[in-house]
Amino acid sequence: MAQYGFGSGSFWGVDSGANPTPGRFGELQDVGVDFSFNLKELYGQKSFPATVARGVGKIACKGKLARFQGRILNSLFFNNSKTAGQTSVASDEAGTIPTTPFAVTVSNSATWVSDLGVRISSTGLPMVRVASAPTAGQYSVSAGVYTFAAADTGIAVKIDYTYTIAATGETISIANNATGLAPNFKGVFTQSYNSLRQTLVLNACVSSKLSIASKLEDFNMKDFDFAGMADSAENIGTWSLGEAS
Prior knowledge:
This protein is 4% helix and 56% strand.
């Protein structure tokens, strides 16, 4: 049976640490692997080269995916610390400025982290943050308590802010590491069609770029670029095919 490929296939990244937990790229959209070499032509007095030799080569890879685990982000790209819990955002939390003390305490005040602004609900106009003693159209904030002016009593507002959630999610620290430091991982790509499977294994890879793209009325897609190289035994990898030639 002839060997063909169809669909996006599946891809795993396996970090180089002791007892690594493989990470599967979720909802994979496509994978690209380019093997290329520089060519060096030797010319004499004629139009075309007398001979051509290969120079250095490279393996450039890219995957587009919709679901990405934090563990994969950290072990294959950032290589920093990872902790339990997450920072979340409250957007357009509704409140109405009361009478004395003219303060609105947001729902997540106990784990409030930072202010992202206040807007007047009826007009959408932003209010101005000040350190203390706000006047009309202004506010101050401390530990999730938003204080307004007496002149703004009764006005409905929308409040945006960040806060932490300890019970769910995880957080990756993005550090300013020294140049040259990068996590190495094994890349495994497989694809099957008509019961024949092909599997490409790249023994050692290093990631170069992670792109996050959002779009109106569409799913968030992430581009993950990486390059293959020789492992410690000077091996690049293997490409296995279901059809024997």
